[in-house]
């Protein structure tokens, strides 16, 4: 073991390898040799070999550490390990094996099998291993709690472990953003003369001040956002109130429109009823007027038929009369009965035609032309002076004139 240490101090790697090879033969019977070989394997990242050696020491029942005063600076541990002062080689080997398992990527096994150290002297190492196992699993809260319990344990950790544990606790607080607690831990380390801790303290205080300013800015931003939100909510409330008022006004106007439409509809219905009643009244009046007109028309047709029959009857009587007196009497009776001007004129024309025929017949019976002429001239004068218009008895006038002309031509 002394040759290994000597070759390591001298930096003679070839000789160191030879010494380690010879020391391997004593690893199963010498606990210190096993710890030394495990440390060198771990230093060279030969974790399987190192874990195997430590597992062997852990399994040795009644293993005793010789008092050679060997102190190991085990890889990735913050404090040296005085092998001769270990209260239990098996427990130390277990903790060192778990330490290597963490860095070998098997932290979950360490957390699953974790148990408190049986000896207070190994409590700092146990806390360190548990904390780094939790940190490897990103369980930073559990890691911080493990470090806190170790730093503030009833039995304070040894000086060699006190500073690294407190520094790790401060780092854990920083990682979790608990800057005030981190600053307190760095301050305690700085008071103990740790220059690096003082530097970290200044950095944390600067971050804390920035965080305070950031918090102030955040609060101010939140206050502005809250004020803006309140203003927005107020505006939205005003808008809703205006919308509600507009809605009520629209409903009122709609109700008014519906009321007016209903009133207009009722008025239109009443007007329609009045118009229908007036139409029925006018239709009834027109019907009655039509009936009266039809009655008048029937009466007129009957009257016309009666007068026509009377005209035919009196015309027949005038034509049948043998004497002028008889014809005049029939004519007067017919005129007294007839009211139609047209029929009256027709009856006069028939009477005149009958007189002309009678004159012509009488004239044909007279012996002398003079008597015939005087008889025809008297008839023609009477015809022209009667009440019948000449244009209605042109034929009779022409007939008399032609008879006169014939008489003149004969004489």
Radius of gyration: 77 Å
- Strand tally: 2
Strand content: under 5%
Q: Oligomeric status of the shown chains? A: single chain
Query: What is the mean predicted local confidence, pLDDT?
Result: 84
Shape: rod-shaped
Q: Total number of helical segments?
A: 15
Task: Describe the sheet with the most strands.
Answer: 2 strands, antiparallel
CATH architecture of the domain at 2-176: Alpha Horseshoe
Distance between the termini: 209 Å
What is this structure, in a nutshell?
The chain is an all-alpha fold and about 400 residues long.
What can you see in these coordinates?
Residues 292-311 are annotated as: Disordered. Helices cover 79% and strands 1% of the residues. It is mostly helical. Among the domains are: 2-176, Tetratricopeptide repeat domain (Serine Threonine Protein Phosphatase 5, Tetratricopeptide repeat); 321-410, no CATH class. A hairpin with an 8-residue loop joins β1 (71-72) and β2 (81-82).
